[in-house]
Amino acid sequence: MSVSTYNKFLLFVAGLGGLLYGIDVGVIAGALPYLQATTNYTPAQLSTVVAAVLLGSVLSSLFAGTLSDLFGRKTVMLLAGICFVLSVPVICLPTESFSMLVVGRVLQGAAAGLIGVVVPLYLAECLTPDKRGFGTGMFQFMLTIGLVFAALAGLVCASYVGDVTSAEYATIAEKASAIFAAKNIAWRLIFWICAIPGVIFTIGALFISESARWLLKQGKADRALKALERSRGLEQAKIELAEMGVEEPAADAPKGEADKPKDSLFKKKYIVPFLLAVVILACNQATGVNSVLAYIVDVLAQAGLEGSLANQGDLVVKILNMVMTIFAMILVDRKGRKFLLTLGTSGIIIGLIGVATLFFNSERKMVNCTDKVPVIPVSLVETKMDDKLGIPVVDEAGNEIKETVVYDANIAFPSKDLGHISGIEGVKDYQVKIVYTQGEQQTIKTIIAKEDTALDDVMLKIKQAKDDDGAALPFEINSIEVGPLPSELNGWLVVFFFAIFIASFAVGPGVCVWLALSELMPTRIRATGMSIALLINQGVSTVIAGTFLPVVGNYGYSTIFFFCAGCTVIYWITAVFFLPETKGKRLEQIEAYFEGDKNALKD
Predict the structure, then answer these.
(1) DSSP 464
(2) Contact 451, 334 (CB under 8 A)
(3) How far apart are CA 113 and CA 110, in angstroms?
(4) Do the beta carbons of residue 313 and residue 567 sit within 8 Å?
(5) Quick one: CA torsion of 56, 62, 519, 135, rounded to 10 degrees?
(6) pLDDT tens digit string along 214-268?
(7) In the chain, helix, strand, coil percent, each to 5?
(8) What is the pLDDT of residue 450?
(9) Least confident of 163-177, 363-377, 404-418, 504-518
(10) How many CB atoms lie within 10 A of CB 464?
(11) Is the dihedral of CA 520, 522, 526, 530 positive or negative?
């Protein structure tokens, strides 16, 4: 295999790692509705299934650095691939075991945590300085492709279920049974489809070389030379090995970092780059990007885009995310990391402030009517109905599935009285924002009350949630607010500012965060430091995701987006004033800079 071919193969394998990372994040979205329709899992159990990936990711990322230092970068990549591939049959076992489903999801999360640390680490150590930005950008680009791939898998299965639904059947029972079976197959099929790139990644990882820098740390200079030779050619490999501190490698007399005495980790050359990486990764999540992508359809609906328009806005933003990542890959090795981070964080601040301001203008017109609106319970519904078909849901044997459903609240006032109750007269279309709590779970629902449906009651129907023991969770209405419905123009303005946000994130932090994670860390602490920094990244992401809806419910969307804009200002200051430009620099040059050689990064 020629040097050029090997480098392309290396990028292909590493890119598949990004693809798997994206699939891990996105696969449950398409599978969850079918999983919910074909099992008796409680809402709490389904939440556990969703969150199990995060648990596996946190645990594995904590140990990923140590594992890659002990066993090598290639070995941990193989381990990640094996975890991902094994997770699929565990999840899809026909035993209907909740515990096995959770175990499978934890394995998927473990694969994501390992990949998030070891693939950027491997790319930073194996690619030449002029290709390192492009290679790491490829990881991020394939991550966005992974999200699309998972969505397409869900679309394929949705089409399959749709075909079964539209077919002719002799009886309603046969039709219901066929639909149930199709949905039961669909959620498993989504996971099986997503296993394909996992298999390819695992096989590909067998044929890449180990990181030369890791081999050198182990005192295996001869193998390090062979690894470099595959991607550089023999002469260039010898030059780079000499720059790493080895003149003439020999199997019987290895030299290099393995023979160097270990100095204290509490030196400025270790602490400063570590803190920089931690701040960058924490601020990366504090932009709110994951919550924006997760809740954008609901956010756009609240902003004034009704029905499918909100989904269209979501599609625009996610396609833009993928396209702008391509531009980032092209620019990162030309313009540099510092430039793109500065540009990207500036755009994020503009986008978030624009969204927050639009919501602030809408939210200040909302009037709290909680004490003016009576809430009364309504009757039980004993049969679980298929919402689309309007027929009872049956199991594979054709037996009707019984499930007690309680509509806990009926907002008992006609929409024609909204203006009178709220004191906002002369408004054509109203929105009623209702925040309620079931157990510890807070939910926000917005009901649209149009002028032409003034005789209809404005109703809130809530399916009663139960705990693990089957007991009904307590229900409480926290607040009811009434205000004018934002215009469609307002909704598209929110899409516009979200587009600025996501384009700026993709072209800057989306790519550069992986580079900062891998480039800033000195060789001695690179693997462990990356694990800790990524763990902090995931911790911030979890906190933002966990507080997003409660903050919105109590203080509005404007508050959360203004907060994220403030965090991004800290990100911008870090990029402008503290981050050195590492474009085209060897890792040893970057390390020398933090050791005190301020000329190390000069051309």
Answers:
(1) P
(2) no
(3) 5
(4) no
(5) -20
(6) 898 888 888 989 988 888 888 888 888 887 765 444 444 444 444 455 555 567 7
(7) 70, 10, 25
(8) 67
(9) 404-418
(10) 15
(11) negative
Pair of tokens at residue 4 = 């050029």
**What are the tens digits of pLDDT across the range 363-400?**
888 888 887 766 655 444 444 555 444 455 665 566 66
Measure the CA–CA gap between 84 and 77, rounded to whole angstroms: 11
Q: Which domains does the chain have, with CATH numbers?
A: 1-210 (1.20.1250.20), 216-259 (no CATH), 367-483 (no CATH)
Q: Give the neighbor-by-neighbor strand order of the sheet with 475-484.
A: 367-368, 475-484, 430-438, 441-449
Say how far apart CA 244 and CA 10 lie, in whole Å: 22
The pTM (predicted TM-score) of the whole model is 0.72
Q: 40-49, 123-132, 276-285 — which one is most confidently predicted on average?
A: 276-285
DSSP 318-332: HHHHHHHHHHHHHHH
- Sequence-separated (6 or more) residues with CB below 8 Å from residue 483: 362, 363, 365, 366, 367, 422, 424, 430, 431, 433
* Three-state secondary structure string covering 100-153: HHHHHHHHHHHHHHHHHHHHHHHHHHHCCHHHHHHHHHHHHHHHHHHHHHHHHH
Which among 15, 126, 108, 22 has a CA at the least distance from the CA of 58?
108
Closest CA to 418 of 456, 444, 461: 456
Residues 6+ positions from 523 with CB-CB distance below 8 Å: 213, 217, 257, 587, 591
- Residue whose structure tokens are 């049974």: 177
Alpha carbon of 300 to those of 458, 462, 487, 489: distances in Å? 21, 22, 11, 11
